[in-house]
Amino acid sequence: MSPLSKASVLPAPAFASAVSDVGTTAASTRNVPRVLAIAGSDPSGGAGIQADLKSIAASGGYGMAAITALTAQNTRGVSGVHVPPAPFLTAQLNAVSDDISVDAVKIGMLGDEQVITAVRSWLEKVRPGVVVLDPVMVATSGDRLLRESAEAALRALLPLADLITPNLAELGMLLGEPEAVSWSEALEQGKRLAAGTGATVLVKGGHLDGDDCPDALINTGGLLSADVVVVDGQRIQTRNSHGTGCSLSSAMATVQARLGDWEASLRAVKPWLAEALRTSGQLEVGSGNGPVNHFHHLPSGGLTSGGLTPSGSTTAALRREGDFAELLRAVAAAELEAIFRLGFIKGLTDGTLPEKEFAYYLAQDAIYLNGYSRVLARASALAPTESEQLFWARSAQQCLEVESELHRSWLSTRTVQAELGPVTKAYVDHLLAASASGSYAVLVAAVLPCFWLYADVGETLHAQYVAAGAPAGHPYAEWLRTYADEEFAAATRKAIGITDAAGLAGSPAEREAMVTAFRQSCRYEVEFFDAPRLHS
Prior knowledge:
By secondary structure, the chain is an alpha/beta fold. It contains 18 helices and eleven strands. It has helices spanning about 5-10, 50-60, 85-95, 115-125, 150-155, 170-175, 185-195, 245-260, 260-280, 325-340, 345-350, 355-380, 385-410, 420-435, 440-465, 475-480, 485-505, 510-535, and strands spanning about 35-40, 60-75, 75-80, 105, 130-135, 165, 200-205, 215-220, 230, 305, 305-310. A hairpin with a 2-residue loop joins strand 2 and strand 3. Helix 2 packs parallel to helix 8 (about 245-260), helix 10 runs parallel beside helix 18 and helix 12 (about 355-380) runs antiparallel to helix 13 (about 385-410). The chain is globular. It starts with a helix and ends with a helix. About 50% of the residues are buried.
């Protein structure tokens, strides 16, 4: 099989990236979700309503806010809480929903029983499509944010939520049990809460010890692909975690309003939040537990009359060759890191990957290649020069040749699941949407990760395979050898150069659209590599 063709088809995904923009796919329910946060205010800006609005914006939504409580707090703790009369909260909620269609609601700090009752009555009347409840009871600093007399009312509110996102202390409190001290105990508590409420529960491993930081979606009613869906992650060593729970829950509400799939939403949001924690020190806010960096995925610098300018520089500075490509490389960095943490990649490298997972991967890749070839053909049709037309046309042809070769060789000798998988469909739908946009620049940005990320992953895997002495009997040796192909590396450089030139020539608004399309394709690259584990 030609490594060039294979590479041009590569699989894969993952929030506007950051998180932030999850892009438009067939599963999307709304391009710019209108998300209402119902929570307390944090004057220091790191948690509560302030964190919610930042997360909603970072996730590509339009944020609205109804204030349940005023707090006096900073990065060192909470020194005071004032809860306005519940009827005024009702007035806020009605003012929003009487005029604006609310696509998703995130509920945070509620304060007392009267406030909870007001929110419950409004939810029962309006019935928003997505309701995420972050049962804010105890702040990260240890300060109590919910009166004990209101705990029963909060428990009664839980069945109205689609997703509940407690930290481990709150999970135990909701069940009337001690806080879990291990991941297995936390999962068991999550199962009990999900069964008792009918909602999906997000169990978070951030407060446990160790280098790993898993999260799990739990629903015992058949709404997920399994009762427990675990999304692995690495712990980010930082003291700046103020508002992490608020940020996660509001981002989940926003992304879910787009994707309609809790698993896909978590896989989009989690890498974004990890990077927000990793880059939090850049903010230099406060002397205690500082906030996360919600907008790490956006270029630094400022706004111009035409919109955000990439690379933290002016539009003029972007006229240098390579500037836009460097911006895209920064966007892709977190997704590449996520790919190398996947069990699929580790198993492929050391040869322990179950054959059924590899078979699923190849079968989905063959399906993907067929759709990808159509998108590349569209790029050829839109290309402004003969050289670029020929490049995309040859790439489209190679995709079809690889798909045929996959079926003639490896797949034809095995029984594999040939149905279109959900990640494959979402990825191809995203690319088809980009091809239908009419913008050549946006389209080439969307197809680039299938070259760029795959080339980087392939080069690293091949190097590791060779460094290990090319062990005899490795079941995927032939596959790994193809990854070092110079022809594909040259094609990748060509695709990067085309995209860089299109970005430099485009307007600030078009560059923003390119970054969004590129970022979403990067996310799908991650999800594509992880899909075999979920569906084999």
